[in-house]
Amino acid sequence: MPIYEYVCPDCESRFELLRPLSQAAEGAACPGCHQSAERVLSVFACFSTNESGLAATVGGSSCSSCGATSCDTCAA
Ligand SMILES: [Zn+2]
């Protein structure tokens, strides 16, 4: 079952809910105030982008050949 993220317009609390695809378009009751919360797009797509971006930064080098942080002599 896919997981969906909801934000309550009343108390602005965010919560996630596992539910079948057939109910994806339906609203969900807020666990806090039981108002009808709206579904928001999950940030799953951003996670992978952040991870690869972080991995690239951890290396600290822009040149894979000589390891210099700013290399314009041997960059492929
Ligand atoms: Zn609420």
Separation, N- and C-terminal Cα atoms: 45 Å
| Percent of sequence in beta strands | 15-25%
Tell me the Rg in angstroms: 21 Å
What class would the helix/strand composition place it in? Answer: alpha+beta
> Roughly what percent helix?
10-25%
- Given the C-alpha coordinates, what overall shape results? elongated
Point out poorly predicted stretches: 45-50, 54-59
Q: Which ions, cofactors or small ligands are bound in this entry?
A: zinc ion
Structure overview:
It is elongated and about 60 Å long. It has 1 helix and 4 strands; from the N terminus they run ββββα. A 4-stranded antiparallel β-sheet has the order 2-1-4-3, with no helix packed on it. The longest helix has 16 residues, at 44-59. The chain has 76 residues and is α+β, with helices and mostly antiparallel strands. The protein has one helix spanning 44-59, and strands at 3-7, 14-18, 28-29, 36-40. It has a domain at 3-44. The structure holds zinc ion. Zinc ion binds at residues 8, 10-11, 13, 30, 32-33, 35.
Put the structure in a nutshell.
With 76 residues, the protein is α+β, with helices and mostly antiparallel strands.
SSE arrangement:
Layout lengths: L2 E5 L6 E5 L9 E2 L6 E5 L3 H16 L17
Antiparallel strand pairs: 1-2, 1-4, 3-4
This protein binds zinc ion.
The site of zinc ion has 8 residues, from loops.
Key phrases:
single chain; 76 residues; alpha+beta; 4-stranded antiparallel beta sheet; 1 helix; 4 strands; elongated; binds zinc ion
